[in-house]
Every structure is written in structure tokens, then in C-alpha cells.
Specification:
heterodimer; A: 281 residues; alpha/beta; Glycerol-3-phosphate (1)-acyltransferase; six-stranded mixed beta sheet; two-stranded parallel sheet; 10 helices; 38% helix; 13% strand; B: 306 residues; Rossmann fold; seven-stranded parallel beta sheet; 14 helices; 15 strands; globular
């Protein structure tokens, strides 16, 4: 009870009005004990919201463009570039929708399988709406009219080296197949700024494998154990309608949507890079 | 009703647990014969009970001379009660399958368990009936039960005229269930794996019984998961039951489970530790869609009912 009151007060101090927004979150998919079939509990967001909002408002000073393209209800795939070694870009994009969208909603993120074996973290992630990255789960969420994050570059995107910054890696096609299967629109988004928060100089592939980690980059802020306070710019593009269901196994149609999404994301990155003056402004 | 009463339903493992519950419910509609190594003293008068030892040929003959309408095998549930699982023994199953192939009952229901899928880091999302029974490698008991599940599946081609249904319910709870889950959750301070709060699926036997009754009256054959109504995190379940969690660090959990007599074997403790660490969620969409089945109790009511 004391902890809850403390979190309420903290949240009110960090972002007045946010508590009301959290209470407005859709509850259609929750059962009698207040969790959805994947363990998400909107009340648990109170634990992470003060930190996320502090990072959003003060640390990364996020600026958001094109939020009107994000639907307030219904299923959607939010597909964007992934970068920065630590997946803060996803957290900030989700916070943008939670804080600024006229109809706040939680975007369901996907985490790697090995996260399920981490004590404390696995439980908290799930309560906050994150799920294990599995096409079946993603499909289940979309069928429940949720909005889901996908990063078509996958792990190579988030762990790319500083020398490869803002160069999109090869896109997988799974997200388009999911969009076709569930008839969900794809909302492209791009995050500019995250690439410089933790510049990776090189990767220790063998050691990473031995430790069971998906990647082990050697990054500059390992000297200072925090990401750099770069400025984030988040861009949302116009929704891309999925091809009709009959094109589910049509490689050509799938590739076309993949390329279209990639092009839109790349152009939003270029726009973001053109308007910024430096890493921190 | 009279015609129904003449139909004989044999319940293997019918003196305790789920078998006992089924016998108590079905005897009003069928001529119920319970078969078990244990006696069934306080049974209703119209239930016939046969105490047998499957290892004895003479004892087996008592069962094998009958020609029932349906055979219900409580399978994995038999193991949960810590008895010698005589109906899961490979030799016994071979005899049973041979008998069923000969007498060709109209229906065979084998109650397996979704626990046999095994909770691992790989079991993400809602798994369906095609997922392998990975818990078979964990303990000799689960190995036995998974093996039995597979052998009973051979009836689909060995006795194609018999309507065979294999059910894999999630953790069953109810008045006659006295398994490790009840021993674990039925205490004031419940052991948990520190840092993990798994999602649980529970099914009340009162919700499960109508499904068995439905199968006996309709044409439902195949392999089906039975998932109950929704999921509940362990911590919420304990809150609802008024219990408190006792979080034990993972390396000490197996020992703690054995010290508290939740289980006796190291393998079983290992299986339960994984159950307390990872989610094991199954989908029963195929059963719901094909046969319009759904449980009546809400998950909270199920969680607080035992």
C-alpha cells in the first residue's frame, strides 16, 4: 500500500495527469484477476511509468512526429528500425503513444526467448505487456485487436556497430505475413538518436555465444554505465494496408510490402537526420 | 434412461481421485464398474467394484471377460496420487489395448495431462495438441505417463471402429484431487521460485466431468487439450486463496519441495520447479471450436475452490 502510494505520488510529480491516462487504458482483454491471457496487467505500468516518463521527458527529450497515423483502437503492427544496443527505442516509442496519443494504449513488445529465464525481469516484462517473440503469440495478440511492435531487422538491428549506424539491415518477411494473415495495417516508425546512445565499437561473438547472449557488443558507455543522453526523434508514417488474405503465400506481394515499409522507414530516418543539429540537440 | 443404464462404463483407477468423482456422477446414468487395486468401500450400491492386480493373470481375467460400452482410463491422474501406477505400466497397457481391440467398446476415453508437455523456456504462448510431450524425459513417472499417452493413441488405427478420445487437461483441482498441486497450494505458506511468477491454468473437476459425460453421449474423438477458463498468475492465486508466498532461490527450491513433502522423488521436484518457473499454457481451441465445450467456473472460483 505504501509502495503504491509512493508510486502514485512519484508519477504525479513526473507527469501530472498520467495516472488518469493509465486508468483509461483498454481493459477488454483482461480477465477476472485483471490480467490478459499473456499476463499483461495495466496496473503494473505504474511501476515503470515514472522511469519511462523521466527518460522520455528529461533524459532523451523525445520529440514525436506523425502520431495521428497511429490508430487509437484496433489491431496494428508498429514496424520500425531498432538500434542502440539496449531496446530503449521501443520503450520510448511506447511511452510516446501512452503519453501523447488521444486514445492511450499499450504497444505490445516482443522480447527474446532467453528473457523468460531471467528472474524478476521476465515477470515484470510480462506484467508490462511484453511477450516472447513468437509468431503464434503475435498472431494471438493481433487477433485480440492489440497493437504490436515488430522490428523487422531483428537482433542484428539493435546490436549493429557504430560504423553501421542508420543503415537498415535486411528486413525479415515474417511481419508482412502476419499482417496479411491477421489483416492488420502496418504503421512504419523510425527512431533517430538511439544509434548514438551506446556506440558499439566491436562485438565479441564467441564469448557472447558461450554466455548464451544473443549479442555481446563492446560499447563506449561501458566506461560510464548509462546510455548517453542523446535526443530522440520519433516519426510515425502513414499506415500501409496489408494485401488481401489470398496473397499470404505470394512471395512477390510480401516482398513488395517489405520493401515499401523499408523505404518509408529509411525516408523518415533521413528526415530525422536532416533536421537535427547534433547527437544531443 | 433404462436403455442407458444397461450400458456398462468401466473406469480404470476408479476408487480415488478423478475416477472416484466420475463414478459418483456417472452411476446415475450408466452401469458403472470401477476397477482399481484399492478397495472402494463407501461406493454407491449400484456401482460394481473390481479390485485387481494387473500383474496377476487370474486377476486380469476378471476385467477382460467384460464387454463394456465405454472404458475410461484416468491415466496420469492415477500417478498424481502417489500410488503404484498399475494401469500405466507398459505390460498392463499392452494387455488393456489387446482387450479393447478384441471387445471393441464403443468409446474409449484416456485422461492424460497437459503437464506432460513440460514447462520449459521453449513453451511460449499457447501450445496445441501437436506439441511434443517433452516432460517425458524429466522423471520416470512422467516418462511412463507420456509413453502411455502415445500407446493409447495406437487405438486410432488398431480399433478404428472404437471412438477413442485422449484428453490432456491442465492441472485438475477438486474435492477428490490430492496431488502435488494440492499439497503445494493447500498450505498457508506456499513455496515459489524467487523471481518468477508463472501463469497457471487450472480446471475444476466439476467442469471436467460434463466433458466426459458429453463424450459418452456424442461423437468426440481425437486428442484434445482441456484448458479451463483463463489464466491466473501464481501471486494472484495465492492472494485469492489467502495464502502467502514463500520465495525460495532456484538452487534450493527442489530441496525445499522435498523437505515439505510436496514430492518425494528428485525428478518430480525438478518437474515442479520448472512448473513454478516457466509458463505452461495450452490452447484448447480445437475442443471449443469443434465441440462447443466451455467450462462454467471462472478462474477465481476454481482457484479458491479446493
Amino acid at each position: 500500500m505504501i509502495i503504491k502510494r509512493f508510486l502514485h505520488e512519484l508519477l504525479d510529480r513526473v507527469e501530472p495527469g498520467m495516472r488518469e491516462r493509465l486508468e483509461k487504458l483498454p481493459k477488454d482483454n483482461l480477465n477476472a484477476v485483471g490480467v490478459d491471457p499473456y499476463g499483461y496487467d495495466p496496473k503494473s505500468l505504474l511501476e515503470v511509468a515514472p522511469i519511462a516518463l523521466f527518460l522520455f521527458n528529461h533524459y532523451f527529450r523525445c520529440e514525436v512526429f506523425g502520431l495521428e497515423h497511429v490508430p487509437g483502437t484496433g489491431r496494428a503492427l508498429l514496424a520500425g528500425n531498432h538500434s542502440g544496443q539496449i531496446p530503449i527505442d521501443g520503450m520510448m516509442t511506447g511511452t510516446a503513444i501512452l503519453k501523447l496519443h488521444p486514445q492511450p494504449r499499450v504497444v505490445r513488445g516482443m522480447v527474446d526467448r532467453w528473457v523468460a529465464s531471467l528472474p524478476f525481469i521476465s515477470t515484470r516484462y510480462r506484467r508490462w505487456g511484453q511477450v516472447i517473440g513468437d509468431p503464434k503469440i503475435c498472431e494471438g495478440l493481433l487477433n485480440r485487436d492489440e497493437m504490436v511492435f515488430v522490428f523487422p531487422e531483428g537482433m542484428p538491428g539493435v546490436s549493429k556497430l557504430f560504423s553501421e549506424r542508420y543503415q537498415l539491415k535486411r528486413f525479415g518477411t515474417g511481419f508482412v505475413r502476419l499482417a496479411i494473415k491477421t489483416q492488420s495495417p502496418i504503421i512504419p516508425f523510425a527512431v533517430v538518436g538511439a544509434e548514438e546512445q551506446a556506440p558499439a565499437m566491436f562485438k565479441l561473438k564467441t564469448l557472447g555465444k558461450k554466455l548464451g547472449l544473443p549479442a555481446l557488443p563492446i560499447i563506449l558507455p561501458q566506461l560510464i554505465p548509462l546510455p548517453l543522453p542523446v535526443k530522440y526523434r520519433i516519426f510515425f508514417g502513414e499506415p500501409i494496408a496489408p494485401p488481401p488474405l489470398k496473397y499470404l503465400d505470394d512471395k512477390e506481394a510480401t516482398d513488395e510490402v517489405v520493401q515499401q515499409s523499408r523505404k518509408v522507414i529509411q525516408s523518415m530516418i533521413a528526415e530525422g537526420l536532416s533536421i537535427r543539429q547534433g547527437w544531443f540537440s | 434412461m433404462n436403455e442407458r443404464r444397461r450400458r456398462e462404463v468401466i473406469i480404470l483407477g476408479g476408487a480415488t481421485g478423478l475416477g472416484r468423482l466420475l463414478a459418483g456422477r456417472l452411476h446415475r446414468y450408466f452401469n458403472v464398474v470401477t476397477v482399481d487395486q484399492l478397495p472402494f468401500h463407501d461406493r454407491p450400491r449400484d456401482i460394481e467394484h473390481i479390485s485387481i492386480q494387473m500383474t496377476s493373470k487370474r486377476s486380469r481375467e476378471q476385467l477382460f471377460k467384460r464387454k463394456p460400452y465405454a472404458v475410461i482410463h484416468t491415466g496420469f491422474q492415477e500417478l498424481s496420487h502417489g500410488r503404484r501406477a498399475q494401469f500405466l505400466d507398459r505390460k498392463s497397457i499392452t494387455h488393456l489395448i489387446q482387450w479393447i481391440t478384441n471387445v471393441k467398446p464403443k468409446k474409449v476415453i484416456y485422461v492424460s495431462s497437459a503437464v506432460l508437455y513440460g514447462a520449459t523456456v521453449e513453451t511460449v504462448g499457447y501450445i496445441d495438441e501437436s506439441y511434443p510431450l517433452t516432460a517425458s524425459a524429466l522423471t520416470s513417472a512422467t516418462g511412463l505417463a507420456a509413453n502411455a499417452d502415445l500407446i493409447w493413441q495406437t487405438l486410432f488405427w488398431r480399433a478404428p471402429k472404437t471412438q477413442t478420445t485422449i484428453l490432456r487437461p491442465v492441472s485438475l483441482v477438486g474435492p477428490y484431487q490430492n496431488d502435488w498441486l494440492r499439497r503445494l497450494l493447500g498450505r498457508r505458506h506456499v513455496l515459489g521460485c524467487m523471481g518468477f511468477d508463472p501463469l497457471l491454468q487450472l480446471l475444476h473437476t466439476d467442469d471436467f466431468y460434463p466433458l466426459i459425460a458429453q463424450i459418452l453421449e456424442t461423437k468426440i474423438s481425437g486428442i484434445y487439450n482441456v484448458a479451463g477458463s483463463g489464466v491466473i498468475p501464481l501471486t494472484r492465486l495465492l492472494e485469492a486463496r489467502g495464502s502467502r508466498p514463500l520465495w525460495i532461490p532456484e538452487p534450493l527450491l527442489e530441496r525445499a519441495l522435498r523437505m515439505r513433502n510436496i514430492v518425494t522423488h528428485a525428478g518430480d521436484a525438478h518437474m515442479i520447479k520448472r512448473f513454478l518457473k516457466y509458463d505452461l499454457l495450452v490452447s484448447d481451441d480445437s475442443l471449443r471450436q469443434a465441440h462447443n465445450w466451455q467450462p462454467y467456473r471462472r478462474i477465481v472460483d476454481t482457484a479458491t475452490s479446493f
